[in-house]
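User: Earlier you gave me the apo prediction for this protein. Now I'd like the version with fe (ii) ion bound, so I can compare the two side by side. Same sequence as before, with the ligand SMILES added.
Assistant: Got it. Here's the input I'm using:
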Amino acid sequence: MSGQSGGEEALPKLISEVQDDEFRTALEQHLSQARAEVERVFELLGEEPSAERCLGFEGLKAEHEKMVEETSDDLIDAVDLGAAGRTENYEIAAYEGLRRMAKAMGDEEALELLDSNLKEEKEALRTVDKIATRISNESANKAQPDRDRGAQSIADGNDRRAARRGSQRERGASFPRRAV
Ligand SMILES: [Fe+2]
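And here is the structure of the complex with fe (ii) ion:
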């Protein structure tokens, strides 16, 4: 229920930041799904949807904005995926609380709808985790050649130092002979 959890309010902004195609498509699909969820919930309640302030989500949003300011452009997707994961977990916790209340009150219709929303949020979290794993692996693979180059340059440096030591020994061995 976006009116309570607030996660989907910031999705359009997040979508505009994202560089990865699979991540952008997943966010766009989740946004339209979330809007449909809100409509179903309010239809069930017979009320008009209205925005509601959520302090928890405002905290997540403020944290994300600070992280974006401090992050280089090529790491924005990783930061956005972290924000999406935290938001989905927050929404899952909110839905779990609501479904417990609906169950305790014996409201079968609300329970069914909340279960369906909870399932969609858990699916969204699995998608975020899957994309985050792929992007982390891709970043690690991109960094790998640099690490290899670094290791090679250390090895080259060791070879050069060993060669210098060898030639110094040779020179050192020749000095006494010449001195004699
Ligand atoms: Fe969500």
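For your comparison, keep in mind: Confidence is low (pLDDT under 50) at residues 1-5, 168-180.
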